[in-house]
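REQUEST
  id: r-88c1
  op: predict_structure
  target: ABC transporter permease
  payload:
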Amino acid sequence: MTVVTEVEAAPARHGLLRYAATKAGGALLSIAMVVVATFFLFRLLPGDPVRALAQGRNMTPEQLDLERARLGLDRSIPEQFLHFVGQTLRFDLGTSYEYKRPVLDLIGDRIWPTLLLTGTALVMAVSLGIWQGARAGWKPGSRFDKFSTAISLVLWSVPTFWLGLLLLMVFAAGVGPIPGVFPTRGIASVDAPDGFGYVLDVAQHMVLPCLTLVAVVYAQYLLVMRSSVLDEVGQDYITTARAKGLRDDDIRRRHAVPNALLPTVTLVFMRIGFVVGGAVTVEAIFSWPGLGQLFYEAIRVPDFTLMQGTFLLITVSVILMNTLADVIYHVLDPRVRSV
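RESPONSE
  id: r-88c1
  status: 200
  body:
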């Protein structure tokens, strides 16, 4: 019996390895294309980094040329590209024009606030979307289904920056109709206490940006979960469970929801890739000191090395998470496994 099981399991393992290797190869190809696109994309932006950095300083044309040579911008585009590729292969993202610090150090400083904000928002959006989607799909056409689906679609269609600005107008101290309830800028107050008081202060600062992120993305999980549950409702095992006298809540929780989670799991892993990049619009509006705000500051200069480093990190994270989602889905769902 054991020998037969091992023999039968070997092709499945080999199929999984082939599938994972194929996906990994596709991911490497995508990353290579991203490296090329990252370099040339930002060179199309208007503006001269040297002149932008020289604002407010009386610099002669000779001094500007020296600064341009120091930054490597006096080289031809092919030379700059080869230099960028060589640095990237050595995991060196260069030095920021504006901050005069290694890009990796800047990313290391800013990534934790981004993970805190967007990670918290992801957990809340997934939990809310799965809960509402499961209930809405189990009883389609009910008041709960119509209300939750309508609200989620309205919020999903609202531009992120508009919702963020609206919350700022409502809660901004001295301006909004509900002033001072929640902080509207930064990650912590200047006079924030130490210990648990600091944790509470950071939590207060997270409320508005986190609410903005959750409101505009949770509809994706709700709609996918609702559709998956609707597909499961008509399955024979649901009819059998009801014939056995099981309660509807137990059938939904123990049978329908676990089977309907597969598409949502794939969507969650895809969104995890965006967690690293954060939300540029939200972080810029609420002055949240994360990668999104760093990327926004780099665009204003423009700081080519900083833009390239942050954009490369974001896109590579998305590619890797999408690849991992495909492999995990292949493992969880036998219907998509290779023969």
